[in-house]
Amino acid sequence: MTQIDIDDDALERAMALAHVRTKKEAVNLALNFYAEQQERAARISRHFERAHEWGAVEDAERLHRAEKHSR
């Protein structure tokens, strides 16, 4: 068992928003959500790095500029 000091107001808000009944549920939900967000951000970052390596970013920027100037 782990004991931590948690902001009661933040915990109450999280419990209400997530519709959970226990503090444990709220904390586990928040931790899983945070981990998933960080993993998603890392995947997106890797995707953009690969796109940049392929020249896709520059191609998209060129296309955007061309479309913008043709209006």
UniProtKB/TrEMBL annotation:
InterPro entries: VapB_antitoxin. It comes from the Bacteria. The lineage of its organism: Bacteria, Bacillati, Actinomycetota, Actinomycetes, Kitasatosporales. This is DUF2191 domain-containing protein. It comes from Streptomyces dioscori.
